[in-house]
Amino acid sequence: MADIAAKEMEVRPLQNSQGSLTNFGASVRGVDLNNLNEADFLALKKALYTHSVLVIKDQHDLLPAKQFDLNARFDPDAQPTHGLGYGKTLKELGNLAKKPFYSIPGSGGVTLVGDGYQGEDHFGLKNLSLSAISHVDFHADPLTDAELASGQARFVNFHFDGIIYGSHPSRVTTFRCVRTPKGPNVTVSWNDISPQAISCPPGSTAFISTAQLYNLLTDEEKTTADNSYWQPAPHPFAWTGSRRVRSSGLGMAATGQTLPLEDLPEWSSDKVYKYPMVWLSPVTGERCFQMFPEVTHKLYLKDSPLGPERLIEDYEEIRVWLNEVLDRIAKPEYIMVPPCEEGDVVIWNNWGVLHSAIEFPASYGSRSMHQCHIASSTAPVGPATTATG
Ligand SMILES: [Fe+2]
């Protein structure tokens, strides 16, 4: 039954496909993001932190500047600029900066992302052709061009948004679907533990709930996670070097080398944060096992608030420990791919889910998305204490 969150706004949990065990995601109707009053914003915020991912229908005329305003309303004290920090280079951002960022003029910091030709004039961006970040740059065992062209695909990589070094991940990310590619479903497959596959529309974004991941831990593991911390490397996306993710896009492969810290661009330790392993939802208090596998440089494991701390810096030990946790959720039944039509705005709790792009054959045509996230003004808070800088 629909949950009427405010006058005229209808929030309806997404229908699960057969066999799905996901417990998050909702669609929202009856809201105009160009004219969002405070009561509707508060209802939307409550819905977001209840359902983690919202698909807001019928936003065909949303102005990019209003999309940016929506992000800013979730974090009024944040610096009003896109979270990836324009002007940073491949040297600082690694694969994240492999493709240029295109900010929509006058939007405040909404970025055009997608694939293919974007038209003569896309909201002031003239004659752009985009090429999305490919899983080939992130995976240890990528598909071939012929496999991709045939409709096979991979999750590019599951992550939360933000550059992490010197700024905290955004509280929310908004993603407006302007143009979808047209073609049959793609088949996403992986075989890190055993052969797995899902079928989904081309141009989709996949999500996993890190609250669900937390709840897949044993009671003993939950206690350890509640009291433990992780630390990204300085300039984490440059530091990853030649390391690559597994075929699920979740967790690291055994091969590859990180960069020595002395080979990174200049950095300072006050910008390298130590994050809780479990992040509390700012609204519901729900516990989320929120780590970024590729960039994890150190683990600080503690089994109780006053117990001894075990520092793990060995890459292989971190990899094996973390993959063992992630394996529990890298399964079709825990991965949610919300239906997303042109005109929809998807918004997610960036502190409570991980998301991944999914590639599609170039023959399916262009994809145009307006994406926005802004670095959080505060660090995520864990059950034991907060992050320290
Ligand atoms: Fe992202």
Description:
By secondary structure, the chain is of the alpha+beta class. The chain has two domains: 25-211 and 330-385, Double-stranded beta-helix (4-Layer Sandwich), CATH 3.60.130; 213-242 and 256-327, no CATH class. It is 16% helix and 24% strand. The protein is built from eight helices and 22 strands. It has helices at 38-51, 64-73, 90-93, 145-149, 210-215, 219-227, 236-239, 315-326, and strands at residues 3-6, 9-13, 26-29, 53-56, 111-117, 121-122, 125-126, 129-130, 152-153, 172-179, 186-190, 196-200, 205-209, 229-232, 275-276, 278-280, 287-289, 296-302, 309-312, 345-349, 353-357, 367-373. The longest helix is centred in the N-terminal third of the chain and has 14 residues, at 38-51. The mean pLDDT is 93. The chain binds fe (ii) ion. Fe (ii) ion (FE2) binds at residues 159, 161, 355. GO terms for molecular function: dioxygenase activity; metal ion binding.
